[in-house]
Recover the amino acids of this structure.
C-alpha cells in the first residue's frame, strides 16, 4: 500500500536522517519541507497545504532548538514549538492524517535520578522546555490521535550537535572541559528515524499518546565526550567540570533519563546501545 508522508523540518538532524532513510522505502511517497517551503507557523499556509495534498502521515521534525537563545527570544520559541504544532495537529485531525510530533526531555525538571516515564509530572526549567511542553499540550488537545515522541541529547552526521562539536574541538585543542554532573541518554537521530518509520510502516494498529525514545545507557556529558575521544583516537585531554563552572543562560536538567519501556512494548521496537550508535555515526564523520 502506497502512503504519502510529510516530513517537516527537513533540513534538521532528524529530518535529514528521515530523508536518508526514505530511500529504503521506494513504494512510499515522501514530501520533505523546510520552514521556507512550508511556514508551519502560518495557519493559512498549513491549512492550504493539507487541502491541496493527500497526506497519510505527518512527521513534525521542525523545532526551535536553540535552548539558550530561547531565553531571550521567547516569542519565536513558542511560535514554532507550540503554535505551529497546534496548526499541524489540528489540520492532521481535520484531514484524517496521523500526526507524529517530536518533543524533548526538557519538559521535565531533571530532579528524578531514577528516570522519567511518560506519565510523570512535567516541570520545565527553561523557556525551550516550556515551549515544547506547550506544544505537546496543544497537540493532544486538538488531536487526541497524535503520537508525541520525547527524545534527548540528539546527535547525527547532519547539522550542529555535541558529537560534531567535540570532534572539532578535539582536533583543534590540547584540552577541553566538559560538564560531568548532567546525566542523560544520547539519541542517534538515525535510530529515532528508524523507530518512527517502524511505527508508521509496521502495519500494526497505531497507538496514540506520548512515548519516550533514547538510546540505551545512562551517562554524563563528560563520559559522552570521553567515548568520542576514544573512538576518534584524539590526543586531546578531556577534563570533567561541574555545571557551575560553565554558566549558560538556560538552566539544564541534572538528570535527563527517559525510560523507554512503553515504546518498546507497544511497538516492538529494538533500541540500540548508545556507544554502538555513536560508533556508527562517527564512522561517517571520521
Amino acid at each position: 500500500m502506497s502512503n504519502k508522508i510529510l516530513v517537516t523540518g527537513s533540513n534538521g538532524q532528524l529530518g535529514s536522517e528521515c530523508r536518508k532513510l526514505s530511500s529504503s522505502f521506494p513504494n512510499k511517497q515522501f514530501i520533505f519541507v523546510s520552514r521556507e517551503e512550508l511556514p508551519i507557523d502560518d495557519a493559512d499556509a498549513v491549512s492550504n497545504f493539507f487541502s491541496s495534498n493527500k497526506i497519510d502521515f505527518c512527521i513534525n521534525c521542525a523545532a526551535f532548538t536553540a535552548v539558550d537563545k530561547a531565553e531571550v527570544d521567547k516569542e519565536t520559541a513558542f511560535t514554532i514549538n507550540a503554535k505551529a504544532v497546534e496548526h499541524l495537529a489540528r489540520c492532521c485531525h481535520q484531514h484524517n492524517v496521523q500526526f507524529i510530533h517530536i518533543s524533548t526531555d526538557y519538559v521535565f525538571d531533571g530532579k528524578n535520578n531514577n528516570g522519567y516515564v511518560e506519565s510523570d509530572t512535567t516541570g520545565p526549567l527553561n523557556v525551550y522546555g516550556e515551549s515544547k511542553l506547550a506544544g505537546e499540550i496543544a497537540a493532544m488537545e486538538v488531536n487526541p490521535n497524535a503520537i508525541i515522541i520525547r527524545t534527548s541529547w540528539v546527535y547525527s552526521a547532519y547539522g550542529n550537535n555535541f558529537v560534531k562539536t567535540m570532534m572539532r574541538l578535539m582536533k583543534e585543542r590540547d584540552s577541553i572541559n566538559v560538564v560531568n554532573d548532567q546525566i542523560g541518554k544520547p539519541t542517534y537521530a538515525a535510530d529515532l528515524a528508524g523507530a518512527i518509520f517502524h511505527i508508521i510502516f509496521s502495519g500494526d494498529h497505531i497507538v496514540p499518546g506520548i512515548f519516550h525514545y533514547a538510546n540505551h545507557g545512562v551517562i554524563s556529558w563528560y563520559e559522552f565526550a570521553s567515548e568520542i575521544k576514544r573512538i576518534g583516537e584524539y590526543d586531546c585531554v578531556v577534563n570533567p567540570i561541574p555545571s557551575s563552572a560553565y554558566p549558560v543562560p538556560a538552566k539544564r536538567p541534572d538528570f535527563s533519563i527517559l525510560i523507554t519501556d512503553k515504546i518498546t512494548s507497544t511497538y516492538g521496537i529494538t533500541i540500540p546501545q548508545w556507544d554502538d550508535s555513536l560508533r556508527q555515526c562517527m564512522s561517517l564523520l571520521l
